[in-house]
């Protein structure tokens, strides 16, 4: 038998025993932890813990088994077999390397070896430990499975405390339990309430288990202002159930109105709050692209009372372009959040290249999340975050007057309008008679002329016939028309003032609004005007088809001008020019007349609340006053949305209705009515006139005779 | 048997024995002496004994013969055991033995005729006895007050919806917090008293009727004292308001809106220039038309034109409220300054400090429920502050301003002119308050202005004094017998003398005074007998102290009486010395005794 064969033959049983021993100790541990975890965390935790525990046990057991190697065998044989003569190591030595004496001894040992079985080297079972652990595991597992869960199984009833006097023959509530089963999506545990008043999540199922003494015949739950719910018999108990879709008041009526009225109980339904979205980074709503930035990762936090759905939508709005030429594109990206359900983080990664976000644009993102309410999840839009990528062209505020900046865009659009009009006319050409076609073309040509004139003005060009303003007051514009034409020409005192012929008879060409334009812009604008000339010419000759190419070219040039000059509207400073009193009231005032401004007062309506409050007062003449309870109750129902606590008011009303002489009930109702009244707009208290002495004093200090 | 009588008896026996001994000794004397010495000795013995007795027990009777000790509320129980003048026990003093219980001080003075001064023990005399005490000298060492509410002043009658203030003072509670609790049991304002214990709280009224707020004083989370703050909410006739504005603007627009919603009779005349007027149909501004208004709100631009008529109307009772629409021009500034308003300093607008926004829970108790037309409008602390400013020129001039901003800068001042009043409102653009959740503050400001200067209306003055059950109170302003009905429905007829009637409320709570013939009954509140004990003690103490100040100089000063006590031991010493000298002296003895020696 070779060394390897001997080793296998002699270690295999011991290895097997060591493995099984370790497994027998480890498995109950794994079962115990899995049972405990399963009780706390559910079936998934149970399986996971079981898998982890078993694999850990197996690994440990295998390690324990591999400890039984050659050196262990040599040690064991030397220790347990005297016939090995402390030379068991020779069994595994290489025969070639042995001396003659060693070889002889090896042969002798090999002969003796089989005198005993390998089972003697096997270690004992850890019987006591294994037994203890297995029984412990069984007990723990059984306990974990069988221990009653809260809210499961038959409820234990708490003694009632309604404090009603005992009357023979009339049943009284003796014991009670209210089981609250919240909606599944809230993941709240079922709970038992010993009291009949409770605050429950909206949509919860409520189950009452009641016992009466003596036993009732037809008990019922009587909600205030709703139909009563009959209780069902269940053994010696009575049960009823109802879902809490809104807050309500009710009383347990065991004797169907025969006994004294039992006190009211109140169920408050806590509505599911919509989720809250907060932007964590960036902290400000407007941030700017830093140089070299290629993507953006804003981080939002969404919190909710029960849970936020992990998938949300990110609405991205891109504003690309400048000035008037801005295009908007909107898209929604689905993103998923991380973190616990009640506090999720959403960190979308927005790549500029993918989105098409370029310089000079704005990107607005908004997170839209939903909570896990069912049915009808609540959707909430978070705050908008703006990322701005500033244009490389800084706004040129110098060299451009406000007039150019404000007027250019308006006329730019008009050129486009002329093109559209011309195209529309071309489409209708077949349906129109020639004269009409010509007249319309001419009129478009007229528009083109006005536009060209306006642009020529910026170039300081002369205008034939003087282009007219396309506004309504263009015809009447002149001196004395009631508005400002700038300061009247005042001869400046000084040398040469009298000889200022240019100012008197002409106008300098470089004084026009466009003279401050830079030469490039001027050149482009001039080209645009040239094209307009051509376009106008063709239009006036009734050939809009020929005019179109010129018009398009003009539009393109104007666009260029427009892009070269960013719109910049300077803020009007807080210093207004001083009012020139001499020019006041010099304008035309036709059609202006005094007129009354009608004003209708807001009607405050406290109505029955204030009346009842006064009637419930404890002053003389007020106590025991008649109270319009029905009207008040109707008012409370109709105005429930405005009132801070309509339910408490209804309860107090019911108490007063049942016992009109109960002073405590009246005081409580009066206190609650105080919270249900409007605060009328105050009228000032009027002061009392001075008495004789006071009048004399006032006259005296005023300089009159006393 | 008191110590005094025992000593006096011993003294009497001693005098008797001494006299018998003297006579016996004289008889036994071998020489019959001159009898005048014996007579002198016999006379001096009882005199000596009497003087000794007087020095040992200096009773008031023996001091002045006309002083009483009076036990009032808060007198220590053992006061009767101390020796001194006769003790008079007033009903408030409680169970004190060893004195004479009387129903009031006047009774005691009638019983002890000739009394010209009293020594007070305890907190002082109740109002019932003050009149009686004015006729005599009063000796009073004011005790220190216990901790509690020492003063409480509430505006007794307020308009529906108006904000009202409750002021008061605490004694000996430096770390206390004071809460005002509304009738619904919610804390509607809370504050801490200043170093002198003073505090002011604000609440808001609702519909007309009577109600009671509660004032609660807590120290270290323990309620120290609680008191009712009665409140009468009464409707007033709405004022007729004239708004004159030189130009249309948001301020006028929101003033009109506010006044119209509050139910005022509003006439607004808004000039738009060139003889064009907006608002209500134009009226002429003259004495006759202005007499139809209770108050006029006039801006600086419309002031110049209507100045004469407005001033004349103000002398006649019209309330005039001047407001600036911006920095003032020189003429207006001079004219307004000549009306008595302190306008000095820079002619510019200054920012106005708004009060800190209340806690949401407290703010919600100040507002009523909202309606569809005007929902509840509560400013939250993180909201934008409105752009309200004030003209910086208005200075403080030592008079309490009508309105102040949160920083203490004056916002409005008023002056009396004839039977009317003129106020100057320094706020500019107050309308911004209504747009930013401070609508209540806007209303409070303008209401305060109108309430202060508006034309007075005749009506019965409210009964504002704090009274306690079981204590006499005075109801004034009555011309004929009237009926008082208490909370329990008991009716009492009170008979006025010189316009005032005395009334002894039996129960606490709301009472109603119905003067015969007059349509409108008046309500007043009577505090329970045990309510506000410290305030009651402070009132008695202060009233008694004032009494003493007024009478101390008129009557004999108490200090001189106390000096008399020293005369008795001195006289006794003199008498004893004389006696001793007579016994030893040779005067009156026979000359033969000289020969014997």
Q: Bin the helical content of chain B.
A: 25-40%
Question: Could you tell me the strand content of chain B as a percent range?
Answer: 25-35%
The shape of chain A is flat
Unreliable segments of chain A (pLDDT under 50, ≥5 consecutive)?
395-413, 463-504, 506-515, 566-573
First CA to last CA of chain B: what distance?
Answer: 51 Å
Strand order of the largest sheet of chain B: 16-15-14-17-18-23-22-21
Instruction: Compute the number of strand runs of chain A.
Output: 22
Overall 3D form of chain B: elongated
CATH topology of the largest domain in chain B: Rossmann fold
Q: Return Rg of chain B in Å.
A: 37 Å
Helix amount of chain A: 25-40%
End-to-end C-alpha gap of chain A: 147 Å
How confident overall, as mean pLDDT of chain A? Answer: 78
Radius of gyration of chain A: 49 Å
Query: What structural class do helix, strand and pairing data of chain B support?
Result: alpha/beta
The helix tally of chain A amounts to 16
Instruction: Supply the number of structural domains of chain B.
Output: 5
Account of the 3D structure:
- The complex is a heterodimer of chains A (706) and B (597).
- Chain A is α+β, with helices and mostly antiparallel strands and 706 residues long.
- Chain A has 16 helices and 22 strands.
- In chain A, strands 1, 2, 3, 5, 8 and 9 form a 6-stranded antiparallel β-sheet that branches. A 5-stranded mixed β-sheet of chain A has the order 4-11-10-6-7, with helices on one face.
- In chain A, α1 runs antiparallel to α2, α7 packs antiparallel against α11 and α12 runs antiparallel to α15.
- About 11% of the residues of chain A have low confidence.
- With 597 residues, chain B is α/β, with parallel strands linked by helices.
- Chain B has 5 domains: 92 residues, no CATH class; 91 residues, Rossmann fold, CATH 3.40.50; 77 residues, Immunoglobulin-like, CATH 2.60.40; 214 residues, 3-Layer(aba) Sandwich (Rossmann fold), CATH 3.40.50; 65 residues, Immunoglobulins (Immunoglobulin-like).
- In chain B, α1 runs antiparallel to α2 and α2 runs antiparallel to α15.
- The radius of gyration of chain B is 37 Å and the shape is elongated.
- The C terminus of chain B is likely disordered.
- The chains are: A alpha+beta (706), B alpha/beta (597).
- β22 of chain A pairs parallel with β16 of chain B.
């Amino acid at each position: 038998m070779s060394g390897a064969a001997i080793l296998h033959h002699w270690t295999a049983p011991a290895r097997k025993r060591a493995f099984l021993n370790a497994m027998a100790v480890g498995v109950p541990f794994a079962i115990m932890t899995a049972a405990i975890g399963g009780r706390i965390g559910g079936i998934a935790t149970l399986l996971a813990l079981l898998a982890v525990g078993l694999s850990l046990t197996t690994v440990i057991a295998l390690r324990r088994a591999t400890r039984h190697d050659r050196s262990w065998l040599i040690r064991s044989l030397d220790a347990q077999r005297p016939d090995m003569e402390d030379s068991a190591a020779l069994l595994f030595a290489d025969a070639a390397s042995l001396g003659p004496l060693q070889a002889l001894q090896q042969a002798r040992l090999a002969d003796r070896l089989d005198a005993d079985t390998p089972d003697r080297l096997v270690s004992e079972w850890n019987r006591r430990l294994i037994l203890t652990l297995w029984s412990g595991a069984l007990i723990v597992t059984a306990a974990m499975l069988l221990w009653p869960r809260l809210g499961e199984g038959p409820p234990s009833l708490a003694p009632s405390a309604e404090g009603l006097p005992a009357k023979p023959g009339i049943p009284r509530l003796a014991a009670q339990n209210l089981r609250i089963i919240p909606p599944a999506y809230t993941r709240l545990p079922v709970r038992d309430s010993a009291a009949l008043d409770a605050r429950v999540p909206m949509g919860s199922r409520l189950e009452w288990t009641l016992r009466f003494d003596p036993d009732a015949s037809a008990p019922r739950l009587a909600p205030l202002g709703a139909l009563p719910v009959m209780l069902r018999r269940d053994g010696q108990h009575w049960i009823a159930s109802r879902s809490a879709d809104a807050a309500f008041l009710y009383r347990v009526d065991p004797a169907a109105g025969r006994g004294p009225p039992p006190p009211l109980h109140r169920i408050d339904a806590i509505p599911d709050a919509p989720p809250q979205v907060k932007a964590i980074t960036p902290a400000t709503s407007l941030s700017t692209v830093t140089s070299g930035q290629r993507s953006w990762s804003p981080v939002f936090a969404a919190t909710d009372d029960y849970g936020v759905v992990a998938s949300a939508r990110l609405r991205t709005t891109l504003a690309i372009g400048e000035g008037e030429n801005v295009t908007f594109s909107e898209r929604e990206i689905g993103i998923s959040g991380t973190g616990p359900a009640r506090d999720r983080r959403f960190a979308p990664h927005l790549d500029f290249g993918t989105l098409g976000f370029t310089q000079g644009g704005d990107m607005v993102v908004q997170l839209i999340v939903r909570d896990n309410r069912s049915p009808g999840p609540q959707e909430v839009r978070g705050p908008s975050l703006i990322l701005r990528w500033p244009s490389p062209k800084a706004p040129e505020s110098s060299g451009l007057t406000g007039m150019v900046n404000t007027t250019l865009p308006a006329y730019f659009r008009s050129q486009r309008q002329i093109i559209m009009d011309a195209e529309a006319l071309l489409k209708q050409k077949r349906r129109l008679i020639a004269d009409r076609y010509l007249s319309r073309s001419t009129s478009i040509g007229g528009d083109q002329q006005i536009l060209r004139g306006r642009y020529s003005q910026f170039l300081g060009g002369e205008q034939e016939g003087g282009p007219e303003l396309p506004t309504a007051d263009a015809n009447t514009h002149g001196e004395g028309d009631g508005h400002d034409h700038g300061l009247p020409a005042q001869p400046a005192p000084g040398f040469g003032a009298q000889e200022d012929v240019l100012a008197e008879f002409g106008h300098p060409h470089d004084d026009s609004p466009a003279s401050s334009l830079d030469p490039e812009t001027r050149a482009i604008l001039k080209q645009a005007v040239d094209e307009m000339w051509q376009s106008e010419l063709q239009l006036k000759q009734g050939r809009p088809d020929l005019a179109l190419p010129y018009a398009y070219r003009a539009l393109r040039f104007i666009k260029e001008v427009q892009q070269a000059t960013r719109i910049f509207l300077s803020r009007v400073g807080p210093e207004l020019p001083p009012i020139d009193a001499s020019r006041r009231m010099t304008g035309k005032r036709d059609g202006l007349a005094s007129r009354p401004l009608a004003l209708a007062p807001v009607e405050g309506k406290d109505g029955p609340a204030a009346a009842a409050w006064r009637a419930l007062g404890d002053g003389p003449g007020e106590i025991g006053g008649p109270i319009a309870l029905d009207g008040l109750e109707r008012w409370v129902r109709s105005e429930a949305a405005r009132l801070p606590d309509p339910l408490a008011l209804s309860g107090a009303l019911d108490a007063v209705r049942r016992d009109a002489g109960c002073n405590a009930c009246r005081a409580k109702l009066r206190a609650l009515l105080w919270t249900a009244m409007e605060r009328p707009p105050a009228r000032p208290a009027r002061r009392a006139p001075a008495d004789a002495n006071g009048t004399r004093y006032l006259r005296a200090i005023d300089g009159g005779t006393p | 048997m008191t110590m005094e009588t025992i000593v006096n008896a011993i003294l009497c026996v001693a005098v008797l024995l001494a006299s018998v001994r003297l006579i016996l000794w004289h008889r036994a004397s071998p020489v019959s002496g001159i009898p005048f010495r014996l007579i002198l000795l016999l006379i001096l013995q009882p005199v000596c004994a009497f003087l000794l007795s007087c020095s040992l027990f200096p009773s008031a009777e023996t001091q002045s013969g006309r002083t009483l000790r009076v036990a009032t509320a808060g007198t220590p129980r053992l006061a009767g055991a101390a020796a001194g003048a006769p003790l008079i026990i007033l009903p408030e003093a409680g169970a004190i033995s060893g004195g004479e219980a009387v129903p009031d001080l006047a009774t005691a003075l009638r019983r002890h005729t000739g009394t010209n001064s009293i020594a007070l023990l305890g907190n002082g005399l109740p109002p019932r006895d003050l009149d009686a005490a004015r006729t005599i000298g009063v000796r009073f060492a004011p005790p220190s007050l216990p901790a509690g509410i020492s003063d409480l002043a509430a505006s007794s009658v307020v308009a529906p919806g108006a904000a009202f203030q409750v002021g008061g003072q605490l004694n000996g509670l430096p770390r206390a917090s004071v809460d005002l609790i509304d009738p619904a049991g919610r804390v509607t304002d809370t504050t801490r008293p200043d170093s002198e214990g003073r505090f002011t709280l604000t609440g808001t009224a609702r519909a007309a009727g009577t109600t009671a707020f509660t004032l609660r004083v807590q120290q270290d989370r323990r309620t120290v004292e609680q008191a009712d703050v009665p409140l009468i909410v009464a409707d007033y006739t709405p004022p007729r308001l004239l708004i004159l504005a030189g130009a249309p603007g948001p301020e006028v627009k929101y003033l009109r809106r506010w006044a119209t919603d509050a139910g005022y009779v509003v006439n607004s005349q808004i000039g738009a220039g060139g003889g064009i007027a907006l608002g209500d149909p134009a009226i002429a501004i003259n004495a006759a038309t202005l007499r139809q208004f209770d108050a006029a709100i006039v801006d600086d631009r419309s002031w110049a034109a209507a100045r004469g008529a407005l001033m004349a109307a103000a002398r006649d009772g019209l309330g005039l409220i001047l407001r600036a629409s911006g920095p003032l021009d020189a003429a207006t500034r001079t004219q307004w300054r000549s009306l008595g308003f302190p306008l000095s300093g820079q002619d510019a607008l200054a920012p106005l400090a708004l009060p800190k926004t209340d806690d949401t829970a407290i703010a919600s108790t100040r507002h009523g429920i909202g309606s569809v037309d005007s929902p509840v409008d509560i400013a939250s602390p993180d909201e934008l502050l409105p752009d309200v400013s004030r003209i910086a020129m208005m200075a403080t001039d030592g008079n309490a301003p009508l309105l102040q901003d949160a920083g203490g800068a004056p916002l409005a001042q008023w002056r009396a002119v004839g039977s009317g009043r003129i106020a100057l409102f320094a706020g500019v653009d107050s309308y911004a308050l209504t747009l930013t959740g401070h609508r209540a503050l806007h209303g409070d400001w303008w209401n305060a202005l109108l309430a202060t200067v508006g034309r007075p209306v005749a009506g019965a003055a409210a009964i504002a004094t704090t009274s306690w059950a079981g204590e006499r109170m005075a109801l004034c302003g009555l011309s004929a017998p009237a009926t008082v009905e208490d909370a329990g429905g008991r009716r009492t007829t009170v008979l006025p003398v010189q316009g005032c009637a005395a009334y002894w409320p039996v129960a606490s709570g709301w009472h109603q005074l119905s003067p015969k013939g007059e349509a409108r009954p008046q309500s007043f509140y009577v505090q329970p007998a045990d309510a506000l004990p410290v305030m009651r003690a402070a009132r008695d103490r202060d009233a008694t102290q004032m009494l003493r100040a007024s009478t101390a100089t008129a009557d004999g000063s108490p200090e001189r009486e106390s000096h008399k006590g020293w005369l008795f031991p001195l006289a006794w010493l003199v008498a004893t010395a004389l006696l001793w000298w007579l016994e030893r002296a040779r005067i009156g003895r026979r000359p033969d005794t000289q020969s014997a020696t």
